[in-house]
Inverse folding.
């Protein structure tokens, strides 16, 4: 079965790619540049990781005068899923996103996943299912999976500010520091 994975080059999406490859799916990544501050760095991480994971990647770019920084971006995951469905040529199979528990963002919840799954099923005549294998996992669970799979941590990028060196203050950087320490 085909699995298209929304792929940002971070720990969660890299784990998601591996999860579906390990499950025997034919996997491809979909990277969406929607004007996020980290787009250039994420794109570079996706290039390196897709080669190491041996998957093709479709790259989508959305134009907007707005530049998005760190923190909650209302509707982000909905936009990513809708963009992948429309522009990513998702005609059948699974569309996966690496959302997880432990955040208060609605678009990382089981309720969001259920609602967007209904829409995707209806829009695709039942051919595309939206899945999130880690929706009930914590960030620590995903990191444990990542480490157990021996995935290349130094090739991932997770700073919401798009900084080099990373900002160290956004939620993704704080998670990464905490995970390294654990």
């Amino acid at each position: 079965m085909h699995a298209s994975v929304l792929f940002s080059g971070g720990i969660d999406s890299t784990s998601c790619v591996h999860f579906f490859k390990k499950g025997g799916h034919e996997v491809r990544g979909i990277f969406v540049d929607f004007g996020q501050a980290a787009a250039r760095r994420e794109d570079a991480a996706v290039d390196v990781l897709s080669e190491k994971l041996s998957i093709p990647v479709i790259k989508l770019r959305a134009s907007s005068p707005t530049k998005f920084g760190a923190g909650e971006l209302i509707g982000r995951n909905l936009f990513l899923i809708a963009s992948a469905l429309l522009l990513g040529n998702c005609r059948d199979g699974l569309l996966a996103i690496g959302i997880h528990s432990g955040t208060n963002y609605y678009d990382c919840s089981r309720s969001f996943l259920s609602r967007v799954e209904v829409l995707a099923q209806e829009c695709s005549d039942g051919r595309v299912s939206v899945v999130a294998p880690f929706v009930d996992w914590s960030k620590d669970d995903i990191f444990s999976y990542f480490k157990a799979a021996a995935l290349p941590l130094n090739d991932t990028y997770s700073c919401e500010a798009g900084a080099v060196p990373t900002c160290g203050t956004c939620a993704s950087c704080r998670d990464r520091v905490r995970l390294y320490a654990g």
